[in-house]
Amino acid sequence: xxxxxxxxxxxxxxxxxxxxxxxxxxxxxxxxxxxxxxxxxxxxxxxxxxxxxxxxxxxxxxxxxxxxxxxxxxxxxxxxxxxxxxxxxxxxxxxxxxxxxxxxxxxxxxxxxxxxxxxxxxxxxxxxxxxxxxxxxxxxxxxxxxxxxxxxxxxxxxxxxxxxxxxxxxxxxxxxxxxxxxxxxxxxxxxxxxxxxxxxxxxxxxxxxxxxxxxxxxxxxxxxxxxxxxxxxx
Length: 234
Fold this sequence. Notes:
Blueprint: E1 8-9, E2 28-36, E3 39-53, E4 56-67, E5 72-81, E6 87-94, E7 104-111, E8 114-121, E9 124-131, E10 137-138, H1 143-147, E11 156-163, E12 167-183, E13 186-196, E14 203-208, E15 214-219, E16 222-226
Parallel strand pairs: 1-9, 10-11
Antiparallel strand pairs: 2-3, 2-16, 3-4, 4-5, 5-6, 6-7, 7-8, 8-9, 11-12, 12-13, 13-14, 14-15, 15-16
């Protein structure tokens, strides 16, 4: 049964123009090892391809993570505006059936300053109906969002996001240097990017310099590192 409808109207905040440009991205698919304290425990498969939705140019993005022998299995399907990266829809599936820990089915459609849809868990289904008074980006899609920024030495950006569990967040994205990332196709020069909603919970991202692309991240004991070809585990 549906829980009572909760409407959220966000208090006004001043948000600078965010210079995201989806044209910096390229159609691609990539695989990463999920590493915990140096040990590979799973795989992330990520695919981005051009598409259209109601005549609007979009990026169609799938991120599928699977680790711990399949006990964690989460597939997010995003559709975002190909120019601005602003979200148009999200489908998030966690767990193969309702007996899986954290099982959910999230369906969200984004409109102008609005997100609506449903959240289904093992306990039932509840509506999502949220209003914003400023532009937001999807809080589940970090790496490719950062890739769409005009990264350069010393640059700092603020990206307002919304996520179905966390709500609104202001992400600070700061370029702190460059590094070399070892990939299956060779060494790649990457921007070192620190990002997060709190100074004490920053994630270390690596974004390729010459052909912008996400090259993995580190967050505490967890990391994603580029690996050879793999397929969507769906």
